[in-house]
Hints:
5 helices, single chain, mainly alpha
Amino acid sequence: MRSLLLVSLVTTLLFGCAGSGSTKTASEPAGVEESAAATTELGPRVQALFEANCTSCHSEPEPAGQLDLTTAVASGSLVDRVSARGNRRLLVAPGQPESSYLIDKLEGTHRDVGGSGARMPRGDDPLSDAEVATIRSWIASGAQR
């Protein structure tokens, strides 16, 4: 029994710790792990921006523009979805913030691409450059939740 416990302890120490710490392999370039962590944090940061600035209008029971930006459905409402405003642009084109109508609406350039309506958020101050940059980064990184 004692030897089984000792073998178990040694195995855990030798192999159990191999899975903790850095997941970067020798072949990965420097910064890959940090970049992946930053990308993972973007989804919640973007959602927090939506919650603070958008969901007063873009939520159930009748979301403006048929676009619900609440936590449970925001990504599915935006990513690879065509705008309901008739310009046929994707709201969020993963990896392509310059082709994403959401960015046009936030920057007030939506009419330049055939869009309509007001700059978002409607009736409030525009998002700061830093906030729009966060959303751009999220889209550029693939628009993951």
